[in-house]
Amino acid sequence: MSRNLIDRFVPGEQMSDVLDATDDLVSSGRAVTIDHLGEDTLDRAQASATRDTYVRLLGRLADLGLASRTEVSLKLSAVGQALPADGHAVALDNARAICAAASSAGTTVTLDMENHTTVDSTLAVLGDLRADFPWVGAVLQSCLRRTEGDLRDLSHAGSRVRLVKGAYAEPASVAYAAKRDVDLAYVRGLKLLMAGAGYPMVASHDPRMIAIARDLAERYDRTADTYEFQMLYGIRVPEQRRLVAEGETMRVYVPYGEDWYGYFMRRLAERPANVAFFLRSLVSR
Ligand code: FDA
Fold this sequence. Notes:
This protein is of the alpha/beta class. The protein has 11 helices and 8 strands. It has helices at residues 3-9, 15-27, 44-63, 87-105, 119-132, 147-153, 179-195, 207-219, 237-245, 260-270, 272-283, and strands spanning 31-36, 70-74, 109-111, 137-141, 160-164, 199-203, 228-232, 250-256. It has an 8-stranded parallel beta barrel, surrounded by 8 helices. The chain starts with a helix and ends with a helix. Residues 112-113, 139, 141, 162, 164-168, 203-207, 230-232, 235-236, 253, 277, 280-281, 284 line the site of dihydroflavine-adenine dinucleotide.
């Protein structure tokens, strides 16, 4: 894999790299969510180190005056969820420390969603965290058959939900196999979120989904500050700028860190569509 390809999707390995990229994005009118790369750790010390990195990052965002436009995204498996025996409790403790740091910095945390085996644990952690930090957001994946139920549960006032199609290879017993069904489920999810009382985060590069989300926002009399669009760093950048110019909130998901190799290889291996997804980015930005 070429360094150019990696650079397009990850601004760098160091915290200074992601802070520079964040500064540029915020200056261009976009909001940001930062992901420190890493997942599925089976090492308790690594989970603690990741927690500490997030806490430091949030302090830097506050110092630099970037926290009002920048939140963080967190994979619970990076902070211990996959540890045998007490992984759920370890991840909850670490996530709580990160939420406390986000609260001090004046920003928010969104919990990424990993494969279907983690959904119950992640939503339980979300519920626990929200008791103290009601602004913690969740990601739900339209590819999963259970998601419509989860969306109904999470479309209440104050609830921040990032709707994605889903990036993990999942068995047909729990997920839609056909892309068309995943797309239709995404549209149904958008309707539930836009009609609900929460804060929808429309995370997709798909022009059809973006157009439908905008139509629904209008139908449900939503003002631009009651929902937002989100895209991955380096993908459809002109479209990101266009949406900002048209008055929409656009948040860019920026991953950084040394663990980029695993991130890319897993993304490419997990789902054949992702190979096309990344290759297409080389020719159409
Ligand atoms: P999809 O891949 O279906 O593409 C539809 C259309 O979008 C294409 O036909 C093309 O028109 C356009 N398009 C897509 N990619 C393009 C490109 N590179 N260049 C130009 N046009 C392109 N997943 C997960 O399982 N858990 C998570 O926590 C997250 N988190 C997350 C956060 C954010 C902010 C985003 C944007 C995405 C995620 N994802 C995720 C990933 C998500 O599940 C999904 O894999 C990708 O977003 C790809 O799906 P799309 O909805 O973008 O469209």
